[in-house]
């Protein structure tokens, strides 16, 4: 029927009025609607349209009529309720309310389920409870919605279950719109309280700063900030915050993802502090410190780090050292030990050894190296603490020398006691003999014997005196109280005089004595007494250690600004290794030798000291079994304001013969 007809029919029914036939219209809508329509009475289908037949996949209307609507549904609905129960609930509801819209799962004749939106309406037919049902297939719409719901669920879960702290805020006023549980946990507020708060309540920044940051996020694409927030218990937390705008229901909000970096910052600060401390330790250490790696052949690699003290001690700039290997810093004669040490460090992880390093200007430094291996970024590296032990070595040497000196001193005292005791024994022995003769009153005490006894006692008295003199002088020299009596004196005359005065004695020992000089006279500043003792001592030694048939030569040479006096003998000589030490205090080359020749081992030491007081030097050349040569060099200097002294004037108290007696007392004693 056409729309026009529809109106005409209506007009026909209500003449004179333009009245619409609603019942007819309703009927038309029921019949022709694309939506499925059912008419229910007493909960059974009493009528349906063609759309409904198609909707449910049936062939004819008759198949549906008389059936119950729940039979067009699966047994269970989405909420788990049986369709029959839920269907009756819906019908009861519509009988009460008049109409009701709800979603329902239906099924076709073939059993295929689909979503439908159902509108039930109670029709106002008197005395009858007729319900019209209009059904729309919403499976497609439902599908989209489900995806949307799933998505929403996903994002909600992302927001709620995320361990990252998340906040949503209103950028206009800073009000907090939503927070996730991680945020509640971190800040210590429950969600309800949080939603009444403002970002101002949690930020330690000023309001101005907060809103300038928000502005930065909104309008300048700012994303990443380091801030400080206050949590519920008042604690201040360092936070790293990622922010951005987000549109929710047409309103622009600001999301913030917050990371608590308090601990990280604390660790970083502690790390920085400890790094600073180690850096200071590294550079302010007293020892040199090197860090170096190894090359592919496990040889020491380039220096990776070095401290200031190492640069200072070795005289290199840091940049220069960073181009070198520790191998190059070893002195050449120690480099051959490097591979062996490297092997040990690599095998055992650490090693301590001594070596000698060299500075840029090739100065040697004795060092002790404490090397440790460790891994740095997966590579083997060596940290070596290098201590300069030059001083320690010197101290050790000094200590060794002190100990040796001490031993020598002890030896000297036992030796010197013997030296004192021997002449004293002789003196007392002689006195006893004389006493015995006197007691007996026998003729043994004749003039001849008395002379012999007196000579013997005098001789040994001289030995004691020489010893005491030497000891006193050496002590004086040691303590700086010995005063040389410098005079301008003819040294040639002095040496010649003293040499000739022992000539007679030397001859009795069957030793030849030669004196020679290329100078007639040489006046220079010296202490004649001291020089005389020096020459006498050298001559006495030469006689002591030269066998009969040998020769002793005394030479004086002019050397320009100094003169040299040499005493050469063809005696037993001195072993090479002892040459350096014979001028040292208390040294005797060989105890067994010296037992044949009395002596305390202080003669040469005193000689050397006396020569040095003249600013001169003394040295020895000797070959074992062939002889020795002692050479004195004296500077030629003159005393100001002093005339040449006559050698006849000096030391009037003690005659030269006596001095020779004293100096030679060791040798005489053997013969007596
Ligand atoms: P001493 O008083 O014992 O002779 P010195 O200091 O004069 O002490 O000499 C030290 C040592 O040097 C002697 O004991 C001797 O071993 C050695 N010596 C000194 N002069 C000679 C020499 N001319 N020939 C060989 N040995 C010598």
Tell me what you see in this structure:
By secondary structure, this protein is an alpha+beta fold. It folds into 4 domains: 3-139, 2-Layer Sandwich (Beta-Lactamase); 162-265, PAS domain (Beta-Lactamase, 2-Layer Sandwich), CATH 3.30.450; 287-388, 2-Layer Sandwich (Beta-Lactamase); 462-663, Heat Shock Protein 90, CATH 3.30.565.10. Helices cover 44% and strands 25% of the residues. A 5-stranded antiparallel sheet has the order 2-1-5-4-3, sandwiched between helices. The chain has a 5-stranded antiparallel sheet with strand order 7-6-10-9-8. It has a 5-stranded antiparallel sheet with strand order 12-11-15-14-13. The longest helix has 51 residues, at 390-440. The termini are far apart. 24% of the residues are buried. The model is unreliable at 1-18, 589-597 and 646-653 (pLDDT under 50). Bound molecules: adenosine-5'-diphosphate (ADP). Residues 537, 541-542, 545, 569, 571-572, 574, 582, 587-589, 593-594, 599-605, 628 line the site of adenosine-5'-diphosphate. Adenosine-5'-diphosphate binds at residues 537, 541-542, 545, 569, 571-572, 574, 582, 587-589, 593-594, 599-605, 628.
């Amino acid at each position: 029927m056409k729309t026009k007809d529809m109106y005409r029919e209506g007009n026909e029914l209500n003449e004179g009025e333009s009245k619409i036939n609603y019942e007819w219209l309703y009927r038309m809508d029921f019949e022709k609607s694309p939506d499925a329509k059912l008419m229910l009475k007493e909960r059974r289908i009493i009528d349906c349209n063609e759309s409904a037949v198609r909707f449910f996949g049936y062939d004819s209307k008759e198949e549906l009529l008389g059936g119950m609507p729940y039979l067009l549904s699966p047994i269970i609905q989405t909420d788990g309720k049986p369709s029959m129960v839920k269907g009756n609930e819906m019908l009861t509801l519509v009988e009460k309310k008049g109409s009701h819209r709800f979603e329902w799962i239906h099924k076709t004749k073939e059993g295929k389920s689909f979503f439908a939106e159902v509108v039930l309406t109670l029709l106002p037919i008197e005395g009858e409870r007729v319900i019209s049902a209009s059904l729309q297939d919403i499976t497609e719409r439902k599908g989209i919605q489900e995806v949307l719901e799933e998505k929403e669920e996903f994002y909600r879960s992302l927001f709620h279950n995320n361990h990252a702290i998340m906040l949503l805020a209103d950028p206009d006023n800073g009000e907090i719109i939503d927070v996730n549980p991680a945020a509640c946990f971190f800040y210590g507020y429950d969600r309800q309280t949080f939603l009444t708060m403002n970002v101002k309540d949690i930020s330690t920044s000023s309001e101005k700063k907060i809103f300038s940051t928000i502005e930065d996020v909104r309008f300048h694409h700012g994303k990443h900030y380091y801030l400080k927030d206050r949590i519920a218990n008042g604690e201040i937390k360092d936070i790293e915050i990622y922010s951005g705008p987000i549109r929710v229901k047409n309103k622009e909000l600001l999301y913030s993802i917050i990371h608590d970096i308090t601990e990280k910052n604390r660790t970083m600060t502690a790390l920085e502090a400890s790094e600073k401390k180690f850096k200071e330790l590294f550079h302010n250490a007293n020892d040199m410190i090197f860090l170096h790696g190894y090359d592919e052949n496990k040889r020491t690699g380039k220096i990776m780090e070095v401290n200031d003290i190492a640069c200072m001690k070795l005289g290199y700039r840091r940049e220069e050292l960073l181009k070198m290997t520790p191998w190059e810093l070893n002195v050449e004669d120690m480099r051959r030990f490097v591979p062996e040490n490297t092997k040990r460090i690599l095998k055992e992880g650490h090693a301590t050894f001594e070596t000698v390093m060299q500075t840029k200007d090739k100065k040697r430094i004795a060092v002790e190296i404490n090397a440790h291996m460790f891994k740095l970024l997966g590579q083997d590296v060596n940290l070596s603490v290098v201590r300069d032990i030059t001083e320690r070595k010197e101290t050790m040497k000094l200590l060794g020398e002190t100990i040796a000196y001490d031993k020598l001193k002890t030896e000297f005292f036992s030796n010197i006691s013997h030296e004192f005791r021997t002449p004293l024994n002789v003196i007392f022995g002689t006195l006893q003999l004389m006493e015995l003769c006197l007691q007996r009153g026998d003729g043994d005490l004749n003039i001849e014997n008395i002379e012999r006894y007196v000579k013997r006692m005098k001789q040994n008295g001289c030995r004691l005196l020489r010893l005491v003199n030497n000891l006193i002088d050496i002590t004086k020299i040691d303590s700086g109280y010995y005063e040389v009596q410098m005079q301008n004196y003819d040294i040639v005359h002095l040496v010649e005089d003293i040499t000739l005065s022992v000539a007679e004695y030397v001859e009795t020992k069957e030793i030849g004595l030669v004196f020679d000089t290329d100078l007639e006279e040489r006046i220079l500043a010296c202490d004649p007494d001291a020089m005389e003792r020096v020459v006498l001592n050298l001559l006495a030694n030469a006689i002591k250690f030269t066998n009969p048939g040998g020769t002793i030569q005394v030479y004086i040479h002019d050397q320009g600004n100094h003169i040299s006096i040499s005493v050469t003998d063809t005696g037993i000589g001195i072993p090479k290794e002892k040459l350096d030490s014979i001028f040292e205090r208390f040294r005797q080359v060989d105890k067994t030798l010296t037992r044949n020749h009395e002596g305390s081992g202080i003669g040469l030491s005193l000689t050397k000291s006396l020569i040095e007081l003249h600013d001169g030097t003394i040295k020895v050349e000797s070959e074992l079994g062939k002889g020795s040569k002692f050479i004195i060099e004296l500077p030629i200097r003159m005393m100001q304001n002093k005339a040449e002294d006559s050698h006849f004037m000096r030391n009037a108290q003690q005659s030269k013969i006596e001095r020779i007696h004293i100096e030679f007392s060791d040798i005489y004693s053997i013969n007596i």
